[in-house]
Amino acid sequence: MSIKFYAPLWGNTRSFKEFCKNVTEAGYEGVEMELPLDVTAKREVLNTLKDYDLELVAQYYQSFEPDPVANFDAYRRYLEHLLEAAPVAVNCQTGKDFFTFQENEPHFSLARELSEASGIPITHETHRGKCLYSAPVAAMYFQKIPELRICLDISHWCNVHESLLEDQKEAVDLALSRTDHIHSRVGFAEGPQVNDPRAPEWSDALQAHLGWWDRVVQRHRKAGTSLRITTEFGPFPYMPSLAYTQMPVANQWEINVYMLHLLKDRYLGSSSL
Questions:
Q1: CA 9, CA 16: separation in Å to the nearest integer?
Q2: pLDDT digits (tens, 9 = 90+) for 182-225
C-alpha cells in the first residue's frame, strides 16, 4: 500500500509560492485545496504546484445553495471545474444535512459518473452541515449506496454526538470500511478541533482518533490499496482564540506538521503498524 500526506491550503496567509515551498520542505506529497474559477488564476495555481512537484487533492466545500436543484447544478459545475485540472483525487463536502435522501442521492450518482468517466477518485466528507453529518445518517447512506467512498473527518461526529462515539460502534465500523481519505483533525465532545493535540488533557481524544485511523490503515495495508491523509487542523474559528484580540491559542501550521510527523512515524516508520 501507499500513504500520501497532504497539507491544507485552508488558513494559509502567505503567498501561494511560499506556502508550496513550506509544504515541500515539511515533507508533504501535496496540497488539498479548492481551485479558483478564474482561468488565469487557476493556471497559475496548477503551474506553481507543478514547479514544487506537489500533487493536488481538489476540494469542494461550496454547498451553499439551500434549494436541492440549485445545489446539484452548482455541484456539477464545480466538480467539472475541479476534474479539468486532473487532480489525484477530489474530496467533496456533499449535499446538505436538511436535504432528504432523495434530494442528496443525485449528488452521489453524479460524482460516481464523473469519477468513472475521468478515472479520478471522488470521496465524500463526513462534515457537519453536509449530507454525511452524523454517524447514523451516514450509515443509512452507506447501506443504500454500496459504492460510496468517504473522506473520514470523524472529529465532526464527535462534536455532533457529544462523545468519542463509544455508543456508535456499528456506524463507525461501517464508516472505517468506506474510508479512502482521512482528515487527521482531533475533535472532542464539544467541538470539532481540540486546541492542541500535543497537550496532555487531550490524550483520550487523540488516542481515540489514532485508534480509528489505525484501523483504516490496517484495512488498506491488507488490501494493498492507497490512502490519502490531510493534516487538517484549521485556523480561527476552528482554532480557539483569546477574546477580543482573536489571538490563536496555538500555531495551526506547527500542529499540522506535528500531525504529519506523528502519523508518518506511526504508519511509515521502522516500527509502523
A1: 9
A2: 999 999 999 999 999 999 999 999 999 999 999 999 999 999 99
Residue 146's CB: how many other CB atoms inside 10 A?
Answer: 7
**Exposed (0-12), middle (13-18) or buried (19+): which is 8, by Cβ within 10 Å?**
buried
Q: Is the pTM of this model over 0.90?
A: yes
Which grid coordinates belong to 31?
Answer: 496540497
CA angle 72, 60, 176 (to 5 degrees): 100
Residue with cell 452521489: 108
Strands (E), 162-211: 179-183
Residue type, 262: L
Q: How far apart, in whole angstroms, are the C-alpha atoms of residue 200 and residue 189? A: 16
The amino acid at residue 117 is A
62 Cβ partners below 8 Å, 6+ apart? 34, 74, 78
Q: Apex CA 90: angle with CA 87 and CA 94, to 5°? A: 160
